[in-house]
Each structure stands twice: as structure tokens, then as C-alpha cells.
């Protein structure tokens, strides 16, 4: 995100705007070709004030202004980004100044490098949605198809949270080996674990084998949720990086919805839980083959070079080749070479006077500690306000709320999934307009109200099952405009550059650890305290999280990563 320039006016523009060059406003249309050429020439020679908007290609030694059409053209082009700057210092009819961060690319070239990593998030969401129906099928004497269907509350908790414990273990394992594996190989490994875990779970002859499969699948979740945002962020063009990372949350929601749909289709089948868990395996196979076809992250290759893991020139050539493939350019093209060189220079400077690989404890020092309190607090409250319980147990909650037939509960879960998808789309579209804090404050306040309604239903509104459904919809909608997408967006932008990788690893550990604990504890707590008191407890915690957001979480809308580090973390 670009900051405001002292010499210009920043005009807000839609994220994706289809513009026709011939339809320029009269005030910006040159009267003749000579006038247009004179303006381009004057822009080329006018001195610029020192601004972050003017760094990069425009200030490089071999910079060239892009060739502008002298005649109206019928060619369509996409203007991607949230801002466009106009120089107001030389009159009211100036041409727009090129943003050096606006990289030329084709949408076709960025689809696959986003899609295959995002499938890792989809498979995580699918596990959440499928488990909602699978817990009903697995414990039904008529539908289970097993002799060990009568699970205790602890055994049920292990089945539900087994993948989360695996994800927690995967998050622990990935920290020391992430730089060795690289983002691409990390995601390929995640796909292998997804395939093996899904297959073992669906074919399990007993509870022990089923739990082993759930653990392997969870290991895949841990690796995928660490590697996917890194690969997407490091390989996509800078002007759409925020959009694509936010869309990854949408893929998680799509996975949840897919899990609900499969559960709805198989809920009446004997052994339907096997199909629910097994569907993830072929999707993971597509993910693995897709990642195998993609190049490594160019930035990871440069990091390995500056860390002294191999000859600098060799890694640099590999990075140029990888970037050329990712952008659909000819091998070794000059544009990719210049971009790699521009990325390598600050990396060398950042690592010049530092140890190549810093200590894990850096995250708990100075500005990084402040960032971890904010990011870690958000992902912790994201889980301990009951989110995993509401999602994993959507079917049983609705069943106990009056939808006695398992199929009815599963169908209502599909409705919840569709609503979740809708609200996530709203958050993705509005987060850069409204800001992080307003969405967090409004969404968390709604979560508090919804949890109080759920508690009230179980206390004295039991004759009105629609209250439970409305409360669940309110919870899901508020979660998806607040904690769902914005917590991870804040995690990705709040840490200083040097500790960003380790900070994200620690945030993933916090997220999955608290998720596993809450998911496992929900059934025993419900038996001990009753559903009404459990949801009341979640409501009190949600109220505390609202105070945390109001008092400690800053607004980062419109700030560059460097501005966040210099203005908020100092």
C-alpha cells in the first residue's frame, strides 16, 4: 500500500477497474499529439520530491517512462490496485504518474501459483465441514457401519481434534525445516500428508487407525497453512498481494462448504463418514501435482543465497528463471533480471551486519514483542471465543436444537456454509475501505451477542429452535467479517521484516494449539457445565477480546509495511 505523496493527490480507485483509454475525461485529454508529447517530455525532466512512491523503476539508472498511446485505442486494460496518484504541481491537466509498484502481468500467469497453494487452505476447511457430518455418521448405530460406534466424549473429542493436534505438531516441525524445504517442497509434502491421511482415515478398520489418519492429515494442515501464504505472497505481483492472501480465507470457507455438501449427500449412507473423509484425497493429489509443476519461490532462492547456502550467482539465475516462469515471460528476460536485482540489493543490506539466521527469541524482543502481542492475541481470541466448537459441532448443535434428524442438521449446516461464504466475500471487498478496526470491533460485538443468545436458548428458549439457527448465523457472519480474515491479515502485516517468518510460525502455533484445546474440551465441558454455561463462558471471553481489540489493536489501513514498522511498532 502506497502512502500519500507530498507533491500529489492520491485518488481512491476500485480494486479492479476496467478502463478504456479513449474514454479519458476532457480535462485529461490532450488537444493534439504535440501537446501530449510535450507533457510526457515535461514529466520526464521534472525533478521529483523524495517519496516512497517514486522509488524503484522510475528512479533507476535505466528507467524509461512507458509508451503512452498517441491516438485513442480500443484495447482494454486492467487497472489493478487501490490507489492512483496525480501530480498537481503543474496544472490541472496532468497525466497520471506511474506507480513503480504497479508490475505488468497477465491474470492467466497468476492463477495457478495462487490456486494450487490455496487448495491447501481448501482442504483445511474441508476437514472442518466434513467432520461436522462425520461425527453424526460415525456414532450412529444404523449409519456407522462399525461395531465401535459408541464413542465416549473423550474419544469423540480425539476424532474431532485429531487433525488439529496433527496441525499443531506440523507447525512445530516446520519451523526448523521451513527454510531448508522451501515453500514449494513444503506444500508438496503437505499434499502427500493430505493424501495419505485422508486415505487411511476413510479405510480405517478401527479407532486407532482412524486417529492415525487424522493425525497425518493434520500434519498436512500444519505445513500447508504455513507454506501457502508465504508462497502466494512471495510469488504474486505486489499490487494484488493483499487481495490474493485474503482470497485464501475464502478458499478455506469454500472447503468448509464443500465438506457440508458432501456430508449432506452421504449422511444417510451406511459408512458415510468414510466417504466424507476420503473425498479430500483426490483434491490433495491435484494440489501436489500442481505444486510439482510450479517453480520455487524466487524470494526463497534469494534468501538462501544471502544466507550463504550456495553460490550467489547460481541462486540468482535460478530466481530469474523462476520469476520468468511465474510471469509467463521468456526465460531470462531483462524485466525479471531487473526485478530480481532490485529485490537482492535490500536483502544483502538487511543481512550485511546480522547473523544470516536469527534467533527464535527475537520475536520476544523490542518491536517484535509488541507485534506478537497484537498478532498472537488476535489468533488466540479467534479460537477461545468458541469458533472451532461452533464449526466442528454445527451438526450436533443444530440436532440438539430441535433438528432431530441428522439429515436436517446437515442441511442447515450447508445453509450456514453458504452464509459464511457470503460474509467472507463482504469482508474481502470492504476491508480496505472501512479499515481493520471497525470490522473487528463490530464483528466481535456481534459474536458476544450471538453467544449470549445461544446460552439463552439452552437456558429458557428451548421451545424456539430458530433462535439457535439465528444465533449460529449471527455468529458465523460476525466471525467472517472480523476474526476470520482480519486476524491473519494483521498477522501478515504487523511483524517487522526480519522476524516476519518466525512471527508467522509462532502465530500458527498459537492458533492451532488453542484450536485443538477448545475443540477437545468442548464435549467434556458441555457434559460438566451444560451447553448454556459453556456458551455463556465463550460470551464472557468474547467480551474480553472486544476490550483487547479496542485498547491494543491498531489501524493499519493505508499504511505500507515499512510505515507500520516505523509508526506503530516503535
Structural description of this entry:
With 570 residues, this protein is mainly alpha-helical. The chain has 20 helices and four strands. Strands 1-4 form a two-stranded antiparallel sheet. Strands 2-3 form a two-stranded antiparallel sheet. Helix 14 runs parallel beside helix 16. The protein starts with 7 loop residues before the first strand and ends with a helix. The relative contact order is 0.11. It is found in: Membrane. This is Major facilitator superfamily (MFS) profile domain-containing protein. Its main location: membrane. Keywords: Membrane, Sugar transport, Transmembrane, Transmembrane helix, Transport.
Fraction of helical residues: 55-70%
Q: Give the C-alpha Rg.
A: 26 Å
Distance between the termini: 20 Å
Strand order of the largest sheet: 1-4
SSE string, helix = H, strand = E? Answer: EEHEEHHHHHHHHHHHHHHHHHHH
DSSP summary, beta strand count: 4
Which geometry do the CA atoms define? Answer: globular
The biggest beta sheet reads: 2 strands, antiparallel
Q: Helical segment tally?
A: 20
Q: What structural class should be given to the helix and strand makeup?
A: mainly alpha
**Low-pLDDT segments:** 1-101
- Mean pLDDT comes to 76
Query: Which band does the percent of strand residues land in?
Result: under 5%
Summarize the structure.
With 570 residues, this protein is mainly α. Helices cover 68% and strands 3% of the residues.
Amino acid at each position: 500500500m502506497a502512502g500519500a505523496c507530498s507533491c500529489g493527490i492520491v485518488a481512491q480507485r476500485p480494486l479492479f477497474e476496467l478502463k478504456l483509454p479513449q474514454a479519458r475525461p476532457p480535462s485529461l485529454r490532450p488537444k493534439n499529439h504535440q501537446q501530449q508529447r510535450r507533457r510526457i517530455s515535461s514529466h520526464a525532466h521534472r525533478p521529483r520530491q523524495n517519496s516512497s512512491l517514486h522509488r524503484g523503476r522510475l528512479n533507476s539508472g535505466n528507467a524509461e517512462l512507458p509508451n503512452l498511446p498517441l491516438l485513442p485505442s480500443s484495447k482494454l486494460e486492467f487497472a489493478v490496485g487501490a490507489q492512483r496518484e496525480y501530480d498537481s504541481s503543474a496544472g490541472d491537466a496532468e497525466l497520471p504518474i506511474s506507480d513503480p509498484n504497479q508490475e505488468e502481468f497477465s491474470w492467466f500467469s497468476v492463477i495457478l501459483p495462487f490456486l494450487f497453494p490455496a487448495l491447501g487452505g481448501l482442504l483445511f476447511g474441508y476437514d472442518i465441514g466434513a467432520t461436522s457430518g462425520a461425527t453424526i455418521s460415525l456414532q450412529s448405530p444404523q449409519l456407522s457401519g462399525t461395531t465401535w460406534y459408541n464413542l465416549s466424549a473423550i474419544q469423540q473429542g480425539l476424532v474431532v481434534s485429531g487433525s488439529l493436534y496433527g496441525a499443531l505438531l506440523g507447525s512445530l516441525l516446520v519451523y526448523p525445516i521451513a527454510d531448508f524445504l522451501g515453500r514449494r517442497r513444503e506444500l508438496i509434502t503437505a499434499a502427500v500428508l493430505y493424501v495419505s491421511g485422508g486415505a487411511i482415515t476413510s479405510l480405517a478398520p478401527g479407532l486407532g487407525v482412524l486417529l492415525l489418519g487424522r493425525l497425518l492429515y493434520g500434519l498436512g494442515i500444519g505445513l500447508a497453512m504455513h507454506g501457502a501464504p508465504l508462497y502466494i505472497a512471495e510469488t504474486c505481483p505486489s499490487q494484488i498481494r493483499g487481495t490474493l492472501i485474503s482470497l485464501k480465507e475464502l478458499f478455506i470457507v469454500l472447503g468448509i462448504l464443500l465438506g457440508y455438501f458432501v456430508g449432506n449427500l452421504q449422511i444417510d449412507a451406511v459408512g458415510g463418514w468414510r466417504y466424507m473423509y476420503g473425498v479430500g484425497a483426490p483434491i490433495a493429489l491435484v494440489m501436489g501435482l500442481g505444486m510439482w509443476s510450479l517453480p520455487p519461490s524466487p524470494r526463497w532462492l534469494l534468501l538462501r543465497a544471502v544466507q550463504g547456502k550456495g553460490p550467489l550467482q547460481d541462486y540468482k539465475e535460478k530466481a530469474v528463471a523462476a520469476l520468468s516462469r511465474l510471469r509467463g515471460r521468456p526465460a531470462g528476460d531483462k524485466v525479471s533480471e531487473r526485478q530480481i536485482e532490485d529485490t537482492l540489493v535490500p536483502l544483502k543490506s538487511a543481512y550485511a551486519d546480522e547473523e544470516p539466521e536469527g534467533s527464535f527469541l527475537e520475536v520476544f524482543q523490542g518491536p517484535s514483542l509488541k507485534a506478537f502481542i497484537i498478532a498472537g492475541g488476535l489468533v488466540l481470541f479467534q479460537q477461545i471465543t468458541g469458533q472451532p466448537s461452533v464449526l466442528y459441532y454445527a451438526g450436533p448443535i443444530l440436532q440438539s436444537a430441535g433438528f432431530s434428524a441428522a439429515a436436517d442438521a446437515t442441511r442447515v449446516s450447508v445453509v450456514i456454509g453458504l452464509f459464511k461464504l457470503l460474509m467472507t466475500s463482504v469482508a474481502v471487498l470492504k476491508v480496505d475501505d472501512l479499515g481493520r478496526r471497525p470490522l473487528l470491533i463490530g464483528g466481535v460485538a456481534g459474536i458476544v451477542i450471538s453467544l449470549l443468545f445461544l446460552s439463552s436458548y439452552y437456558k429458557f428458549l428451548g421451545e424456539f429452535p430458530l433462535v439457535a439457527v439465528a444465533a449460529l448465523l449471527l455468529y458465523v457472519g460476525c466471525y467472517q467479517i472480523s476474526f476470520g480474515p482480519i486476524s491473519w491479515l494483521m498477522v501478515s502485516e504487523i511483524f517487522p521484516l526480519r522476524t516476519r517468518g518466525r512471527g508467522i510460525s509462532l502465530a500458527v502455533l498459537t492458533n492451532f494449539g488453542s484450536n485443538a484445546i477448545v475443540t477437545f474440551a468442548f464435549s467434556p465441558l458441555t457434559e460438566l457445565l451444560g451447553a448454556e454455561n459453556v456458551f455463556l463462558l465463550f460470551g464472557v471471553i468474547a467480551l474480553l477480546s472486544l476490550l483487547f481489540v479496542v485498547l491494543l489493536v491498531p489501524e493499519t489501513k493505508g499504511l505500507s509495511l515499512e510505515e507500520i514498522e516505523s509508526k506503530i511498532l516503535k
